Amino acid sequence: MKAVIIGGGIAGITMGILLHRKGLEVIINERSCSIPLTGNAFLMHSEGVSILKELGNGYSHKKIPGKLVDTYSLRRPTDEEIKFQKLDPWQCIQRKDVIKFLYELIPNEYIVHGREFSHFLYDEKKAYAAVFKNGDIEYGDIFIGADGGNSAVRQEIFGNTQYTPVEVKEVLGIFENKEISQQFEHRFTKFQHKSKGLSFGMIPTSDTELIWYIQYDTRINDIDDSPSPKDLKGFCKNLLFEFPPIVQEVMDTDDFHSTYIWHTKDFDILPSFHRNNIVLIGDAAHLALPFTSAGTTNALVDAHTLCNCIVDEEDYTSAFKKFYGLRAEHIANQIELGRNLKKDFLYPTYKEDDDLIVPLIIKQSRPQDKKTQDKSIRIMYFTDPICSTCWIIQPQLRKLQLEYNEHVNIEYKMGGLLPSWDNYNRFGIKTPSDVAAHWEEVCSYYEMPINKHIWLEDPLPSSYPPSIAFKAAQLQDTGKAVLFLRRIREMVFLEKKNIIKKEFLHRAAFDVGLDAARLVRDLEGRAQEKFKEDLMLSDKLNIQVLPTLIFSNSDGIELALNGFQPYESFVDIIHQLNPDAAKSEYEKSPKYLFEEFQTMTSKEFSFLIDKNENESREILQDLFDKNLITKFESTSGNMWINNFNQIES
Length: 649
Hints:
By secondary structure, the chain is an alpha+beta fold. It folds into three domains: 2-39 and 50-59 and 97-163 and 268-355, FAD/NAD(P)-binding domain, CATH 3.50.50; 377-577, 3-Layer(aba) Sandwich (Glutaredoxin), CATH 3.40.30; 590-648, Arc Repressor Mutant, subunit A. The protein has an eight-stranded mixed beta sheet with strand order 3-5-4-12-13-14-11-15, sandwiched between helices.
């Protein structure tokens, strides 16, 4: 089978490489007379990066170009922080670097330059040749249109495209500045106006280089599409006169000679990506607005998906239909997301700051067969961020999650352990130094690492602020809130950090993927009311000891566990409330456990793999020596941190 690919950009070249490696005859037709290196740079999602890595596998010199981006910062022109959040890994890459990377992976004889598509020749309804404007004719069995958003192939098989009107334009630039690049390393920084459609963003592509862009509502102001660098610079500076000094520095530093204006538009999802033996991929098949940064990733994923379909299916018709089935719904969702983001951009006063979302696509969800989960048992877990007994039952709770997650639903409630030190007396503890002594005893007896020195060097005046922070985390995401609670416990029990301080709460929120800026805002608002509700419930239920776990089933039967309890007590109560609750057997490999729980103490690891202390220590040391895990060393014991994913990537 011979595949004729029309378009030698990222989608077309990737398609050619993949099909060539599968043994198909391939010819790539590019309209430019040389390698198409126009365009500045873009963000590429990890799905796209993984395909580049796959393509470059076996070529020791082929390093993925660009700069890792894993942080999103949204700010106002006043420099007020609105969002600060961890991202799925993205890569900011110059387009020319990706093109060069790909062109080196396919022999030159498979690419013909100077061929701009004109039309197809047909035998009845089936194309048998592509005709180009220079008179060349290329015969083939299947034809793949990868000729971009203004695709001539798409127009031939589906007619004129009905694009949405251009309501937002982008000015895109790239420039050298080592100081700014390193200051904003790994960060997608965006300044968004609060009351009109105007934003400025910048992302480093290397240690010395950044891309920047301006998005603006054309109703605010506009300029001719081909202005001089001087006129464009003046236009941009006028648009951004309210924006902070760092933005002004970028505008002043760039000479605007590589800057251009982009008209943003899209079109509705097509009813099919093919007609007979002609199929479209990338922007030729679907075009999303740039607010999602989806274009380049989609080009790579399309090529990879279509190649697999062609290889797996018996004929091209089945392959093309399967390709559409795998991609269309996801693409349609991206188009809708882009349009919603454009609406938010054009009418920014319609949304509160907390409702703004990260303007990037997420990884495509894959259909999975999931066993219906019967959450037959509810657990109300009353706890506190600085409760040492709550820390030492972490091994039991984690094993419960692994073995009985299908049956139990845990609701975390704050118990308010330490209001203040004024007239405080709880089980003989009256001062911070009493806590230090207590923590030392608990650490020694239960073998969970606890650093007592926080209470001697920088004692917390209250546990209420980190408790309120947990409620703020719950307002965003109940699952990530549990990770946040774990993170601030690691900070206080191991890292000797005073988690009453907002800088540590902000960092912990970011570490677990929450919007750190929103969490800090919520500390002074709704989270306080939610914390008060927990305290009132605690008083109503007469909770005297932390932790207290109240188990209940649909029949209204309630049973409770107080303080430290062996794991068998948890299992016994579950079986009392639901005799049919079957234990799930979980994988005890270190890789699985460290991917399930990103951090583990030695005690937790030993408990979860059912090994004694010496065996566990040998396994952990071996993993550490292989750089599969790293460690945080505490005076009372180590915390081990997952590094499997970083090594594999």
